[in-house]
Write a structure and sequence with these properties.
Elements (H helix, E strand, L loop, with lengths): L2 H5 L9 H4 L6 H25 L4 H6 L3 H9 L7 E2 L2 H11 L8 H23 L11 H24 L8 H6 L6 H27 L4 H9 L1 H16 L26 H32 L6 H17 L6 E2 L1 H9 L6 H16 L9 H12 L5 H10 L1 H17 L1 H20 L4 E6 L6 E3 L11 E6 L8 H14 L5 E5 L8 H16 L3 E5 L3 H7 L4 H5 L2 E3 L2 H22 L1
Parallel strand pairs: 5-6, 6-7, 7-8
Antiparallel strand pairs: 1-2, 3-4, 3-5
Helix pairs in contact: 3-6, 3-12, 3-15, 3-16, 3-17, 5-14, 5-16, 6-8, 6-13, 7-13, 7-14, 8-17, 8-18, 8-19, 8-20, 10-11, 10-12, 10-17, 13-14, 13-15, 18-19, 19-20
Length: 583
């Protein structure tokens, strides 16, 4: 096999195309990536299960079948799925009003939330609804994740301070500082300093010691496992549990054994909206990560197959006693950097995690909860995306406001309300932009065949020809504004006898817009002003040809502005000469 064939990305069409086209040269990379990711997943999955209000082993359960299920249906070669901070927070926020956190009922609701989410995503995939990813704009997603990250950080502060709950105010924290457990706080700060150092400087220092930068980055990303091991050893050696340090507690060895408890119809119905929200957010986040990784390898992502893959992953999570999952950014990046070539890396990671559950699970019983809290804090703090807020605010205030309001809505009103508020504001901003269309008077750039806005360029115009370019689809929200813009332009050019509407930017004209154009044309004909069209797009022309407007009130439709300008200019000039002779 030549080098080109060995290095060719394992793409293809259809399910399991990567397996049918598998190359032996990819095996070493997949095995290495599977080992590295399995080590990385352990502390993350346990931490995110704690964040979701579930036993820590549930996070490990959610890291086995989802990886295998995604490998069967997904289209990304590098995406690593499993528990992530956002789905953990959404699980806790959405289920807390329905059951007591930590109870058996709460666990069953979390399982059914994952199952319903998976079923919805899988059905959407079968219906080829991959375009659903477009309904959540980047400001909404970024604002939601930033707001969620703030909530996650606040939720872990009590674990870091050794307090039963977060003080109601900074004043309450200062006045009750004696309640802070200094031993727990000290352990947390040591772990926090190490993880922050590992995130920012460790890779560079390892590289200076002679390791390659890719290997140094991977080792730096695996630093949480060192914190976990150190926390377990310290707790065991000094018997810190007896000193009041909360620990994970006994973990059941072996794979999950489910005792199914099916909720009532009313409970399942109440889970539908939460399942839909967690499905959409998880899907959008996963597709975004998968696309960014695919671009590095010149591969492509099929959004419909991603729906199937994420749906199968969540069904697998529910069947194995886990909670909702999606693609994780840091985990996927490590998977890619460790050499993953195909989803086999995820299958390898799932097998290794299952072996760890069977053999080593009891060793995690002495893991301090403060260590998991620190792992969460370091993992989610970069998700507070102030840079995106600054960029959006500078570029488009409406999008910046959408991002900010979504984040504040999540923090103040909760996950569901924050997302709904962000979507509503995003739609409102789009309607507001559409209701303020740009309508420009255009003329010919001297010596060229180009036509530009008269307010921005030095152009030539004809005295009896008014050429207007409408830079927006014409629909109910902007018909009045477009009509007023046309009337103002006609007032500015009182000698107009030929009105040319350039529709190159118009993708749709709804019935309200058509009624406005018809009434406008009728009024202009009474004033002896003829209406012409230019550069009408095919789908728009198909619509207009079904009406009487073109035949009865539009004089001519031109394929280009240049042809229209030349034709109508030659008509106008004789009229101008006649007026001069008469005068």
């Amino acid at each position: 096999m030549d080098l080109q064939s060995r290095l060719q990305p394992p793409g293809g069409t259809g399910y399991l195309a990567w397996l049918r086209n598998y190359r032996r040269a990819w095996l070493a990379g997949d095995l290495t990536a599977g080992l590295v990711v399995s080590v990385m997943i352990i502390p993350q999955s346990m931490a995110y299960a704690m964040l979701a209000g579930l036993p820590v082993q549930v996070g490990l359960y959610a890291s086995i079948l989802p990886l295998i299920a995604y490998a069967l249906f997904g289209s990304s070669m590098s995406l690593s799925v499993g528990p992530v901070a956002v789905t953990a927070l959404m699980t806790a926020a959405l289920l807390a009003p329905m059951a007591t956190v930590g109870s058996a009922e709460y666990l069953q609701l979390a399982i059914w939330l994952a199952l319903l989410s998976g079923l919805l995503l899988f059905i959407f995939g079968l219906l080829r609804l991959g375009f659903l990813a477009n309904f959540l704009s980047h400001p909404v997603i970024s604002g939601f994740i930033s707001g969620a990250a703030v909530l996650i950080v606040l939720s872990q502060v009590p674990h870091l301070l050794g307090l039963p709950e977060l003080p109601s105010s900074p004043e309450a924290l200062l006045s009750g500082w004696q309640a802070i457990n200094s031993l727990i706080l000290g352990m947390g700060l040591v772990a926090l300093v190490w993880l922050l150092y590992a995130r920012s400087l460790l890779a560079r220092h390892l590289n200076h010691l002679g390791l390659s930068m890719p290997l140094a980055r991977i080792l730096a990303r695996l630093s949480p496992i060192l914190v976990v091991v150190a926390g377990i050893l310290v707790t065991r050696f000094w018997e810190l549990q007896a000193a009041g340090v909360p620990v994970v507690g006994e973990l059941p060895a072996g794979l999950p054994a489910l005792v199914w408890s099916t909720p009532g119809v009313g409970t399942l119905y109440s889970l539908l909206l939460p399942a839909l929200l967690i499905s959409l957010v998880g899907f959008v986040e996963s597709v975004s990560i998968a696309q960014s990784l695919a671009r590095r390898k010149r591969q492509s992502i099929d959004a419909n197959r991603e729906l199937l893959g994420m749906g199968a992953a969540n069904i697998g999570a529910g069947l194995s006693g886990g909670f909702a999952v999606c693609g994780g950014f840091s985990r996927s990046v490590v998977n890619d950097e460790a050499g993953a070539q195909t989803p086999l890396a995820g299958v390898v990671a799932a097998v290794l995690i299952a072996l760890i559950l069977v053999t080593l699970a009891p060793l995690f019983s002495q893991l301090p909860l403060v260590v998991l809290a620190v792992v969460i804090l370091v993992a989610v703090s970069p998700l507070i995306d102030l840079a995106s807020l600054r960029r959006a605010w500078r570029y488009d205030r409406a999008e910046g406001l959408t991002l900010l309001v979504t984040a504040l809505g999540v923090i103040v009103f909760g996950v569901e309300a924050g997302i709904v508020l962000g979507i509503a504001l995003s739609i409102a901003a789009q309607l507001w932009r559409g209701s303020r269309p740009h309508v420009a008077v255009v003329g010919r750039v001297p010596g060229t065949d180009y036509f530009r806005n008269t307010k921005r360029h030095l152009v030539e115009t004809e005295p009896h020809l008014l050429a207007l370019r409408i830079d927006e689809s014409i629909f109910f929200a902007n018909t009045k504004a477009i009509e007023q813009a046309i009337q103002r332009s006609l007032s500015d050019y009182p000698d107009t006898r030929e009105l040319l509407l350039i529709l190159s930017a118009v993708n749709h004209i709804d019935s309200t817009g058509l009624d406005m154009l018809s009434e406008l044309s009728e009024g202009l004909l009474e004033r002896d002003i003829r209406v012409h069209l230019a550069e009408v797009k095919g789908p728009v022309m198909d619509q207009l040809e079904k009406t009487d407007w073109l035949e009865e009130q539009v004089d001519e439709v031109f394929p280009s502005t240049l042809i229209a300008f030349n034709t109508l200019s030659s008509i106008s000039r004789p009229m101008a000469n006649d007026e001069e002779v008469t005068a």
